[in-house]
Amino acid sequence: MSTFRSRFAALAGIGSAFFLTITGIATAAPVTPAALPAAVLDSCPASSVCLYEHKDFGGKVLVIPAGAAYPDLRAFACQDCRSSKHNNNDGTWSDQLSSWVNNTGQVYCWYWNENYAKRNDPLMNAGTASSYVGKDPNDQASSIGPC
Fold first, then answer.
1. Which of 9, 76, 98, 116 is most buried, most CB within 10 Å of its CB?
2. 100 near 52, Cβ under 8 Å?
């Protein structure tokens, strides 16, 4: 296990989400995490769901430990994040999701509104990833949790 990956695996066990910045990696969606380039796998630890600010797994990353649910992604700062759809961006992870990796054994759902309301997205099946959520759902996620 790489030193980079081990550090994030240790952090994932603390029970809170964290984020980092990586460069974009182009892949087809949806894919299995095993088919992803090493840079994407290293950015999303095992037993975590990773939300990416940009398509193709680019920009900042919010890492969510397996089993965790967050009714309001505004709880997490995303300094300098810019939503393509919401001009009133408040510097948080609300309305930032463009791509994701689910490295857990659970199905996850993300929701357009806080408190798990208005789920219009495809399921985030265990062991899969999406390099782009699509034009309409892009920059709409406001809450997330296991389905």
1. 98
2. yes
Contact present, 74 and 62 (Cβ < 8 Å) = no
Q: Are 33 and 129 in contact (CB under 8 A)?
A: yes
Strand partners, 102: 49, 128
Q: In what order do the strands lie in the sheet with 48-54?
A: 18-22, 58-65, 48-54, 99-102, 128-130
- Beta-carbon contacts of residue 34 (< 8 Å; ≥ 6 apart): none
Mean pLDDT of 110-131: 90
CA distance 18 to 71: 16
In this prediction, residue 31 carries a pLDDT of: 67
Lookup result for tokens 């989400």: 17
The domains found in the chain, sorted by start residue, are 3-146 (2.60.20.10)
Nearest residue to 18 via CA among 79, 68, 63, 83: 63
- Tens digits of per-residue pLDDT, 22-66? 333 333 345 666 677 777 767 799 999 999 999 999 999 999 999
